Amino acid sequence: MPLEAFEGSHDWHVYASNLGDLTDVVPSIGVAGAAGGDVQLGGAGTSQDELLASDIAAVEGLERYSSCVWEDLPVRWATERQMREKGEPHLDIMTLPTIGKMEQEQSSKYLARPHLDRPLRWIRGVDLDGFTPAWVPLICTYLFVSPVALGERIWNPISTGCASHTSKDAALLAGVLECIERESIAVVWLQRLSLPVIDPDSLPAAHHAYVNDFEQHGAQVSLIDATTDLRVPTVYCLVRRPGRLVAQLVTCASDTSGEGAALKALREAQSTLVALETNTAALPENVMDFHDTIHGAVYMADPERTTAFDFVDASNDRVSLSSLPDLGEDPTEALFSTLAVLRERGLKAYAVDMTTDEGARSGFISVKAIIPGLVPLSFIHSSRFLGTSRLYELPEFFNQPTSPEEEINPWPQPFA
Fold first, then answer.
1. For the segment 166-213, what is each residue's pLDDT rounded down to a tens digit?
2. Where are the alpha helices (H) located in 223-349, listed in sequence order?
3. Which of 261, 296, 330, 367 could form a disulfide with 235 if both were Cys (CB 3.0 to 4.6 A apart)?
4. Which residues pair with 123 in a beta bridge?
5. Sheet of 220-225: strands edge to edge?
6. The dihedral of CA 82, 84, 87, 93: what is its sign?
7. Model confidence pTM above 0.90
8. Where are the domains of the chain?
């Protein structure tokens, strides 16, 4: 379905897809709904080409659906210690991100730290270092997975790393890049990094046109180079709208080129603005109860919180968009070069084939990429995984000071 035009939309088309009520198809969705969870499933697509915008929304809807259909999968119960003793190739849960010391008490109703001797469910996956079979935790893979044992309270199911495409390598690449993108989102905000601003004069004409469109309506757009040590082009976008109810929003994108990442970030700014301006859901009274993807974005869009974003565009350093790395146009080559960098950094990567019957019949492959060593994005404010080591290592890469856990940004995550 097309969404209404809005300021700054230029000739972009924004579409949304809605999968309707799937509670009878996917029982776990019904369980989440009964518990008060958000069970709306769909996707969004933005493009200058109206048909492409519609197609993107439809495929994103398929991606969301694929990430929920798990109840017929064969699973095995085992502890981390048992997996090690049997020599089973698997994702070592002790390498997963974890909550920090200060979070532990606050997160007790959501998360516990991984434990060697607590059983959890495992499903078949692939170790992307050699593409060999490996077991991965169910709780880290699919959405609407409720922990049924203490050993599974180590993760909050999230869509990070889910991707659908007509090509396996392209789907895997998209999933891996999203994991990397979301690490940048988390680290920039939590550590309050002031990173180099991309020189507007270095933007291609198409990008510049849409920045101008926002600016003609009184908005200010800053594109930030958030590329990490993993050398994947990543652009963080801040849109300021002085005097508006939605006074600021952020997006971020990783792609195979700086141009692609910047365009995605600008494109997502369009659909994010629509989502924020049309949101009618009430926020929890306490930010510690924020858990939905849009809670923090709505809260932080308030004009009273404008100064919380001052660090984002504070840097005097300028870089050209063309100075960002380029992974090339071939998805297979880009995938394997990115996996090689992950190996260099000592970071394992895994994937699970989530393709459904409906997706396969439509010619689509759906995957979930998991990179346990990266800093995860979390929308649950009381569980931001502040015990993750890379959260305190990456600022040094950016030549920025590192904040200890007690000085981490207290404001909720504004990305949606």
1. 999 999 999 999 999 999 999 999 999 999 999 999 999 989 888 988
2. 258-278, 295-300, 331-344
3. 261
4. 136
5. 248-254, 234-240, 220-225, 197-198, 318-319
6. positive
7. yes
8. 13-66, 76-182+332-407, 184-323
If you search the block for the tokens 């002031």, which residue do you land on?
194
Share the mean pLDDT of the chain.
93
CA atoms within 13 A on the CB side of 31: 11
In this prediction, residue 9 carries a pLDDT of 55
- CATH for 76-182+332-407 (3.30.1330, 1.10.10, 3.40.1000, 3.40.1350): 3.30.1330
Q: Which long-range contacts (CB under 8 A, 24 or more apart) does 321-324 make?
A: 321/198, 321/199, 321/202, 321/203, 321/204, 321/207, 321/223, 321/258, 321/259, 321/262, 322/202, 322/258, 323/225, 323/258, 324/225, 324/227, 324/233, 324/235, 324/257, 324/258, 324/261
Tokens at 99, concatenated: 């909550």
Contacts of residue 314, defined as CB under 8 A and 6 or more positions apart, other chains included, come to 194
Structure tokens at 166: 């007509």
Span 228-284, pLDDT tens digits: 999 999 999 999 999 999 999 999 999 999 999 999 999 899 889 989 999 998 999
Which residue in this structure is represented by tokens 């991965």? 136
Tokens linked to 298 = 């709505």
